[in-house]
Amino acid sequence: MHGRVKVRTTEEERARKEKERQEKLKIYKHAMQQIFHKRKEGELDKNLLELTGKVLSSNPDIYTLWNIRREILIILKKADESEEEMSQLYDAELQLTEYCLKINPKSYCAWHQREWVLTTRANPNWEKELSLCNMYLKFDERNFHTWDYRRFVVSQCKPPLKDEFDFTTDKLMDNFSNYSAWHYRSKMLVELYPDVEGGRPIEDSHHKHELKMVQSAAFTDPDDTSAWFYQRWLLGAVKTNIEVAVYTVSPLKTTVAFSKPVNQTYVASKIRLFINNDLVNGEWQSCSGNQYDVLWIFKHNTDVTDSLDVKMEYDNENGDVQKIPGVKQNGNTYVGKGEIDFQRKYSKPVIEELINQLDSCRQLLAMEPDNKWTLLTTTVFLHCIDAKQYHKEIIENLHTLKTIDSWRAGYYDDLITKWSLEDQLAIDYKSDSIDFKIKFDDKITSLPHLQYYSH
After folding, report:
1. What is the span of the domain harbouring residue 395?
2. Which residues contact 248 (CB under 8 A, 6 or more apart)?
3. Residue environment code for 93-129, b if the CB has 16+ CB neighbours within 10 A, otherwise e
4. What predicted TM-score, i.e. pTM, was given to this entire model?
5. How many beta carbons lie within 10 A of that of residue 206, not counting itself?
6. Are 251 and 304 a contacting pair, CB within 8 Å?
7. CA-CA distances (angstroms) from residue 236 to 20, 151, 201, 343, 389?
8. Is residue 360 located within the same domain as residue 411?
9. For a Cys-Cys bond, which of 124, 344, 381, 396 suits 358, CB 3.0-4.6 Å?
10. CA dist., res. 220 & res. 35, Å (int)
11. Higher confidence at residue 433 or residue 56?
12. Which phi and psi (to 5°) does residue 336 adopt?
């Protein structure tokens, strides 16, 4: 019929597209042959720049061609091209990368080439680059390539950190589901609001503020994982101190176990063994042979016999001196146990916020009992607030999580083992006995805190 465009059949359309693809492939192969021939002949010139640029304009992810372009620009610079000419070449390179990024905003090659140009040329315009990042993050606020490039630009032009922090807030308000923005925010936080005591990731007042913000994000979409992971970082980055867990002095050897790995400099300067009030001299040796270890052997020549007064002193991280007496055991062996506490320490305002959020999680669980992230967060909150008081509920929750999130059952089994051992160890270390036994019903799937059993 007149005036109607003929509609191609599926076979005709497929054949037409295949013909176009073959024609493009032929042009591409011919261009690549020319490029590699010129490179082999050492013809690294502006003509080759033009040729590689045409290919990259269609396919920005041919890394070799970007390498060739860098070689050419370096050669042209050494060939005494004028400063103005080199500036024009660098501008053209930036224009090419920008064109390529419009084709593929997630092109590793194009972003890397742009970074190389800016660190190579004189007087780069960093403000323009920051604006470019803003533009691309408007198109896709979750493009981690742009976030990575933004961190590079910020490291060069150093805008006010508060401005960058506020930028992450704006992006998160647009879309909470943004791993890159949460990650970048965490980097800003520790610099803007550091904890002066060094025990927490950030100061208490802002720690509480961030927990409130992440709660809003998590409750907006409980199935989105980005906010939950950020919350785990906020709760997990609390510093734990180095403590002497247990030491054993026997005629054969003296061993000292620590709560965290320490090096030889630490043990030599912080740990002192006294027998009958005399300081014992000796040498320290890592049990595993590693530079850092949780178990150290103290080699000395002092006789260890019956009826000795044995004690160990160590300087803790608060500057106080801790003293641990050695208690006589069988066979001229003396064992000293430190005070252990696996409970993470949070400030009162943060604990109050965690209790409030725990109540909110329980309400959400009542509506969505099978939501993995809400149940896991409830469990983490219980462990952070008071692991001993809520131990039974914590273990029950982990068993429930194994059912509703069976793909990660092994992870929950490991948590059950770890937290059950910590609960049992805290009890054992308060008793007079050194005969420690693992006393819980679940299977052991990992072996955490082995150094606490080293006596």
Report:
1. 348-447
2. 254, 255, 333, 334, 335, 454, 455
3. bbebbeebbeeeeebebbbbbbbbbbeebeebebeeb
4. 0.78
5. 15
6. yes
7. 55, 24, 9, 12, 20
8. yes
9. 381
10. 53
11. 56
12. -120, 125
| Side chain identity at residue 124, one-letter code | P
Q: How many beta carbons lie within 10 A of that of residue 171, not counting itself?
A: 22
Alpha-carbon Rg of the chain, whole angstroms? 32
Residue 440, amino acid: F
Q: What CATH number did the domain enclosing 116 receive?
A: 1.25.40
Q: Quick check: 141 pLDDT over 80?
A: yes
Boundary of a domain, candidates 337, 359, 376 = 337
Residue 119's identity, in one-letter code, is: T
| Three-state secondary structure of the chain | CCCCCCCCCHHHHHHHHHHHHHHHHHHHHHHHHHHHHHHHCCCCCHHHHHHHHHHHHHCCCCHHHHHHHHHHHHHHHHCCCCHHHHHHHHHHHHHHHHHHHHHCCCCHHHHHHHHHHHHHCCCCCHHHHHHHHHHHHHHCCCCHHHHHHHHHHHHHHCCCHHHHHHHHHHHHHHCCCCHHHHHHHHHHHHHHCCCCCCCCCCCHHHHHHHHHHHHHHHHHCCCCCHHHHHHHHHHHCCCCCCCEEEEEECCCCEEEEEEEEECHHHHHHHEEEEECCEECCCEEEECCCCCCEEEEEEECCCCCCCCCCEEEEEECCCCCEEEEECEECCCCCEEEECCCCCCCCCCHHHHHHHHHHHHHHHHHHHHCCCCHHHHHHHHHHHHHHHCCCCHHHHHHHHHHHHHHCHHHHHHHHHHHHHHHHHHHHHHHHHCCCCCCCCCCCCCCCCCCCHHHHCC
Residues linked to residue 244 through DSSP beta bridges, in sequence order: 258
What average pLDDT score do residues 282-305 get?
Answer: 94
What are the backbone angles phi and psi of residue 324, rounded to the nearest 5°? -125, 110
Residue 137 · residue 147 · CB < 8 Å: yes
**Domain boundary residue among 318, 337, 356?**
337
Residue 203: C-alpha distances to residues 116, 353, 358 (Å): 37, 14, 21
| Interstrand relation of 283-286 and 310-315 (parallel, antiparallel or unpaired) | unpaired
Q: Number of structural domains, the chain?
A: 3
Q: pLDDT of 72-105, one tens digit each?
A: 999 998 887 788 899 999 999 999 999 999 999 9
